[in-house]
Amino acid sequence: MLKPEEAQDRADALISQARKSGADAADAIYVCDASTQVQMRLGQLEDVERSEGEEIGLRVFVGKRSATVSSSDMNPDILEGLVGRAMDMAREAPEDDYAGLAPKELIAKSGLPAIDGDDGVEPDPAELREMALQAENAARAVEGVTNSEGGGASAGRSIVALATSHGFSGAYSTSGYGVSASVIAGSGDGMERDYAYHSTRHFEDLDNPADIGEKAGNRAVSRLNPVEFESGAMPVVFDPRISSSLLGHFVGAISGSSIARKTSFLLDALDSQVFDCAINIIDCPHRKRGLRSKAFDGEGLPTAKARLIENGRLTQWIMESASARQLGLQPTGHASRGVGGAPGVSVTNLHMCNGEVSREDLISDIRLGVLVTELIGQGVNPVTGDYSRGAGGFLIVDGEIGAPVSEITIAGNLKDMFASLTPANDLTYRHAINTPTLRTDSMTVAGG
């Protein structure tokens, strides 16, 4: 793989070619990935996969017209032709009053923070195989597990470089490692499946593979013999495994493009109370070893910690430059992009802060409710906030977690759900989006 400095040189060179060809403005992004994945099943090696690839994308502007092209061939002659095609396409594109590079005065300067995202470790396939085997063996050793979908281990590295014609040039590298296991418990019509996994930036931060496998096995066995119950309105508690999905819907609703198109259920919610006053939601792009940490965004703007929800109040939209111009605002450093197309938006390491009560206290007064540990399907209307999804988990009876339930449906509206959420104090940072256990009393549950 190239070094970040070499990747940066490639992006800079493509920008230079575009300007020489007559582009009024341009940006280029280079992405290089290499990964190794090993999959074991029933104690035998099932698959070893090694993938390596590099791509470069170029966006050019001719007046108010723009075009984007990309290539996985780094031959100089190919890239020269790429620039020519981009210019030809841009001249024929429709005008767009909002498209363009990020404001020059806002671009990231020198002295960007280090995110410690690449540890330089390269485990070989034999080591990954042993990790995958340990995870699967531990899962299969759990009493009640009858079959396996496999154990896996992976290691990879990525390099990203971005350059713009108005002066930004930067690059960074990240490493990534993962271990997973998925097994089946029971037999016949009573079989149940579950899984566990862990992903990190640094190899030394990975959980013990055997612990991951044991967790997968215990989860599968705990789902055996689901019970039926009477449908109705009742408290729903979201386990941290899946409670972060609620923040995913929140992020989509506050994206600048959704607001500009007027397709968000939070369209009129800026500076208003969206959550309970005890709730804070924070985006932390500079967290050391964070899964999505980065010093600059997809347009070359500096990233910064953002308190999106402060004491329950929505403080800002998240915007790239195009939607910011459409809304008459400034971009927020949340632009994200691949090698094709214009930038979109995304958060980095997002979390909801801890509440004040334990998980046990959160459910202690629930006479009948549901702890949800799995969500199935989509069923969310981003315009109205209507929410209806398949789910699985466990009954809560008289404040205690009880028998498993499956093939249930939970329904409500995200506005009401957000307003009634109560967080526990069990937040851990294991994913890119993290939340504690969450409770809402504004949903209807249909039993399986």
Task: Kindly describe this structure.
- The protein has 448 residues and is an alpha+beta fold.
- 23% of the residues lie in helices and 36% in strands.
- It has helices at 4-20, 76-92, 125-140, 209-222, 240-253, 256-260, 321-327, 359-363, 414-420, and strands at 25-41, 44-62, 65-71, 145-164, 169-185, 192-200, 232-238, 281-283, 306-310, 313-314, 335-336, 344-345, 350-352, 368-376, 386-397, 400-413, 422-423, 433-434, 438-446.
- The strands form four sheets. The chain has a six-stranded antiparallel β-sheet.
- The termini are far apart.
- This is PmbA protein.
- It holds the Pfam family PmbA_TldD_2nd.
- InterPro entries: Metalloprtase-TldD/E_C (IPR045569), Metalloprtase-TldD/E_cen_dom (IPR045570), Metalloprtase-TldD/E_N (IPR002510), PmbA (IPR047657), TldD/PmbA_N (IPR035068), TldD/PmbA_sf (IPR036059).
